[in-house]
Write a structure and sequence with these properties.
The structure is a single chain. By secondary structure, the chain is α+β, with helices and mostly antiparallel strands. It folds into two domains: 173 residues, H-NOX domain; 103 residues, Arc Repressor Mutant, subunit A, CATH 1.10.10.60. It is built from twelve helices and four strands; from the N terminus they run ααααββαββααααααα. The protein has a four-stranded antiparallel β-sheet, with helices on one face. Strand 1 and strand 2 form a beta hairpin.
Length: 297
């Protein structure tokens, strides 16, 4: 990935190398942007000296980064497919030149392809392994049970990363699982305002691709019941979601050093243009103007 996501990826790589005891020097960046060639040089060196398995294990560096904002947003995924949807939105937000395509999915498996937006190039083996390794690590962090994977070009399934891997192609991967933990949202409190319950759920996972149906399910209501109860309290799903996302973004703009693009992603907006438009409608300021104003204040 490019743009703000590159720095987070480099921090994962640095921690992944440390976990494996690999002495390729990588300094975790403290800047928002990391030149693409820096990441490629590191990945090429790891592949050359340590192979595909070491690259796949880099993703486990996420376990050493509990406070990394982008990783927190991904870790909040409810299930494997939700994780991939979050990943795809991050790729769009970060203007990544490579993308993950969900080729097939079922309740217990999915097939992914790592592709380039440039029809004349393809991601390298090292880049494939880095991305797939991070996705596998995030699934492990979600406590997905029975996790196993195989590269589509290879017949062998792997339940861990202890063996040596050298598939003919690393472009496509199939991942299967037995079950994932249920939602960790608290149970519904019938004594509490439905609007407050809904807002608490939205605030608890601002990066999620919320819909009326997913919010109703989280609160153990039917879609129609939720809409009716919100309307009775003078609110609606659309207004609650917009307010929740803007409130989250406003706090980060006023109090953090994260880039505007990163804040827009973490707050659940579809892309940077959507974030800018919503902030301007709500505050009469762009994210940059809002940040400058609150910073001066």
């Amino acid at each position: 990935m490019e743009d703000f996501a590159s720095s987070a990826m480099m921090r994962v790589i640095a921690q992944g190398l440390k976990r494996q005891g690999i002495a390729i020097p990588v300094s975790p960046p403290d800047r928002a942007h990391v030149p693409l060639h820096e990441k490629q040089d590191v990945l090429d060196a790891i592949l050359r000296h340590h192979g595909e398995t070491a690259l796949l294990k880099l993703g486990q560096g996420v376990f050493e980064l509990p406070d990394e904002p982008l990783l927190i947003a991904l870790k909040l995924a409810r299930d494997p497919i939700d994780l991939i949807e979050r990943w795809q939105r991050l790729e769009r937000f970060a203007h990544s030149r490579h993308r993950i395509e969900l080729m097939e999915s079922a309740s217990d498996r999915m097939r992914l392809r790592h592709v380039s937006l440039n029809p004349h190039t393809i991601p390298s083996r090292a880049e494939d392994c880095l991305v797939y390794g991070l996705i596998l690590a995030l699934l492990q962090g979600m406590r997905v049970n029975g996790l196993a994977f195989r590269f589509v070009s290879d017949d062998d399934w792997n339940g861990d990363l202890d063996g040596e891997l050298s598939p003919p192609s690393t472009a496509e991967i199939e991942i299967c699982w037995s079950a994932a933990l249920p939602s960790l949202l608290p149970p519904k409190n019938s004594e509490k305002s439905i609007m407050l319950q809904a807002r608490a759920a939205l605030d608890g996972d601002p990066c999620r691709r919320w819909t009326v149906d997913s919010l109703a399910s989280a609160l153990s209501f039917s879609r129609r019941t939720l809409q009716r109860r919100l309307a009775s309290e003078g609110s609606s799903f659309k207004n609650l979601l917009r307010t929740s996302r803007l409130a989250h973004a406003s706090v980060l703009l006023a109090s953090s050093r994260q880039s505007n693009a990163e804040i827009g992603y973490l707050s659940g907006f579809a892309d940077q243009a959507h974030f800018t438009r919503q902030m301007k409608d709500y505050t009469a300021m762009t994210p940059r103007q809002f940040r400058e104003t609150t910073s001066r204040a």
